[in-house]
Task: structure prediction
Amino acid sequence: MQPGPLPIPPHFDPQAVGRLWKVPYEERAQQATRWADQHSIQPAAEDEFRLCLVLVDVQNTFCLPEFELYVGGRSGSGAVDDNRRLCAFIYQNLARISQIAPTLDTHQAAQIFHSVFLVDPDGHHPPPYTSVSAADVEAGRWKFNEALSASLGVEPGYGQQHLLHYTRQLKQSGKYDLTIWPYHAMLGSLGHALVPSVEEAVFFHSVARSTRPDFQTKGDHPFTEHYSALGPEVKQDHRGRPIGARNQAFLDRLLSYDAVVIAGQAKSHCVAWTIDDLLAGIDPDHRELARKVYLLEDCSSPVVVPGVVDYTEHADQAFRRFEQAGMHVVTSIRPLAQWPGVMARAAG
Result:
C-alpha cells in the first residue's frame, strides 16, 4: 500500500457536487493520464493489497436536492455533503482503490413500490410514502391494479395474490412494510445516472488506474423491492416461483478483496440492506471476513422526510449491529493507513 493520501486534482469543484452537469470525458481522461504519471500511480492490476469501494446508488435521483427521492437526512444537505467527502476520498486514495463498484437502482413506473401498482376500493392510487402492511391488504384497503396485468404478463388474480404474499413475507422476515416511494431511478432518465461529481471521480479513477468500474444494476423486477445490491426483498412469488436471487457472483468478488469499503444512499435502506446481505453471505465458519469490511459513515445518510418519516434511528441501529459483527465504522477523513486492521492485512 502506498503511503500517504494523494492531493485532490485541481479540476474537482466541491461547490458543483449538488448540481447537474456534463462530465468532460476527454479532458478528464487526459488529465487522469498525466496525474497517474505525475504521482507514479500504477495500474490496478498490479496492486498487491486489493481494495474495492462499493458505491451504493449514488444517483441523481437520491443525491441532488431537486430530484425525486433526495436523501437529505436530518440536516437537509445529507447526500450533497456525503458526496463532497466521497469524491475527496476517491481522489486522495486513488492509488489504493483497486476497484470501484457502483450500484444503480433501476426502475420503471409499474413496480410494486410505485403508486400506479396499487388502488384503493375507489380506484385511487396511494400517495408517496404510504406504508402498506399485510393487514392493509387483508382488509382490502389496497389491492393490485389489475389494469397492469397484461403489461406485466400475468393474469388479473396473480397480482392480488402476490401482493398479499409479498406483504406477509416482509412481515415474517422482519423487514420494513411495503413503502410506496415517489417515482424514482427511472430507467433512461436523468435521475438514473450517477451524480456528476461522483461519476467524474469514478471515470478519473478508471483512466488513471487502467481499470473498469464494476457496475451493478438492481431493482428492475416489477414484483419485488430490491434495496440490497446483493438480492431482492422477496425471492419467490406466492406460487414458489423465483422472482429474484442473490447476486452470488458479485458477493464472491467482494469477499475476494483484501478490504471492502461501502458508501452511498440511503444509509437506512439500500446501504444497510446491502451490508446486511454481505454479512449474511459470509460463511459462519469464516466470520473473520467481516473484519475486512469498512463502512464510510460520513458518506451516507438516512431517509428523512420532515413530518412524514425519519429512518435515522433505524440506520444507526443497523450500523451498530454491523460493528458488533466485526465490521469497521470509519470516516472518510481518517487516513486509510490508520483504519483498524488495514496495515496488518496489507503487510500480510
The first helix runs from residue 25 to 38.
